[in-house]
Each structure stands twice: as C-alpha cells, then as structure tokens.
Design brief:
The complex is a heterodimer.
Chain A (H helix, E strand, L loop, with lengths): L9 E5 L4 E6 L7 E7 L6 E7 L4 E3 L3 E6 L4 E6 L8 E9 L3 E4 L3 E6 L1
Parallel strand pairs in A: 1-10
Antiparallel strand pairs in A: 2-7, 3-4, 3-8, 5-6, 6-7, 8-9, 8-10
Chain B lengths: L4 E3 L2 E4 L5 E6 L6 E7 L5 E8 L2 E5 L7 E4 L6 E5 L8 E8 L8 E2 L3 E5 L1
Parallel strand pairs in B: 2-11
Antiparallel strand pairs in B: 1-3, 3-8, 4-5, 4-9, 5-6, 7-8, 9-10, 9-11
The chains are: A mainly beta, B mainly beta.
C-alpha cells in the first residue's frame, strides 16, 4: 500500500514541569526496551533502557517505567528544559538485536 | 566521546544508479546495524551484522541491498539499483554487546533518489 506520513502525538509542557511520554509495545516476548531522543536532522540518541526483570529504572532527570501486564512503557522527564524538545521513540529489541521502534511523540517545551 | 560517523550526510542520485553509504562504527564495537526512516515515518530495521555475517535482515532488505565491512573500521550499505521509494534517512548503528546491548546511532545519510 501507499505510505502515508504519521501524525505524531504532541506533548506540550511548560519549562520546569515534568513530562510523561507513553508507549505501547507489541511483543510480549520482548525483554529489553530503550528510549531514544531524536532532534531535527540527527540520529536517535540513547536516553535510558530497561530490562523486563525490572519495572522501574532511573537516570539523570529521567525515569522509565515498564508495565509488562499491559505492555506499556513510559518515560518521565523531571524539570523539563527547552533542550528536551525533540521526538521521543520507544523501541523494543527482538530476535537478532533488531530494534522495533514506536511511532514517536513530539515533546515541545514552552519557555 | 566515541560516536558513529556516517558519510555523506546527503546523497543525491538518479533512479537506477548504485549508491554506497558509509559508516564508521564505534571502534571497539562488534555489532553493526542499518536502519532507515522515510520522511515522517518510523525508524525501520534493515539489517544486523556480526562476525562478518548478516545476523538478521528485514523484508525491506532485498537483493538490491548488501552490506560489507571491507576493513577494520568501515561498514557500508550498498543499494545496487536505486528506486524512488529508497529515498529516506539511513542510519548506521553499532553496539558493543549482542543481546541487549545499547545501539548507538550515527547522524544519518539523507538519500534522495530522483
């Protein structure tokens, strides 16, 4: 079929507020998940990862939550800054180290 | 900080021509990947490569595509006869570990097929 552009969901937050970006994954057998940030004209940049034997992992200003029951991931960004504005993708790792990316969410930070 | 580098940043070619996209993975990494992103769409897996062999490839990666590690540093993606629908951003990635290793991406090559 003909490819069409995705209409990405957009999250607009005020600078300093917390952001929560959600993602549903498809493969219940996936055991490794990653969040990437993509700025305009750049490649995906690793933010944080989590394995399926955990339900929460924290980094610097970021937290990933994993709910395997409903196949749901979330990325929380504390004290969102203008530099956080980007498209955020979740990805699950399948056989052969293949990453399957979600559609992405646009994060816009208002100053 | 080590990074994956890709050249060229933009490649324009005529339909039917061959193109080679080049990547220099992070130096101590052993696993290499190509992904592509058509404008406005998801990042899609093309192929993974380890120990001089393809580990996994997607349906997109047909006979027109090939990968090679010609020396100790470069990793290339060749498209033999480009089609209009090959126009996309092509990203190279590498990881130090296999299963569950973080994949680090280059900035990409924008391929425009006219």
């Amino acid at each position: 079929g003909e490819s069409v552009g995705l209409h990405l969901p957009t999250l607009s937050v005020q600078e300093g507020d917390n952001s929560i970006i959600n993602c549903a994954y498809s493969n219940s057998a996936s055991d490794y998940f990653i969040w990437y940030k993509q700025e305009s004209g750049k490649g995906p940049q690793f933010i944080i990862d989590i394995r399926s034997n955990m339900d929460k992992r924290q980094g610097q200003r970021v937290t990933v939550l994993l709910n395997k029951t409903v196949k749901h991931l979330s990325l929380q960004i504390a004290a969102t800054q203008p530099g956080d504005s980007a498209v955020y993708f979740c990805a699950e790792m399948e056989y052969g180290n293949k990453l399957v990316f979600g559609a992405g969410t646009i994060l816009r930070v208002k100053s | 900080e080590p990074e994956v580098t890709q050249t060229p940043s933009h490649q324009v070619t005529q339909m039917g021509q061959e193109v080679i996209l080049r990547c220099v993975p992070i130096s101590n990494h052993l696993y290499f990947y190509w992904y592509r992103q058509i404008l406005g769409q998801k990042v899609e897996f093309l192929v993974s490569f380890y120990n001089n062999e393809i580990s996994e490839k997607s349906e997109i990666f047909d006979d027109q595509f090939s990968v090679e590690r010609p020396d100790g540093s470069n990793f290339t993606l060749k498209i033999r006869s480009t089609k209009l629908e090959d126009s996309a951003m092509y990203f190279c990635a590498s990881s130090g570990d296999g299963r569950g290793g973080i994949q680090y991406f280059g900035a990409g090559t924008r391929l425009s097929v006219l």
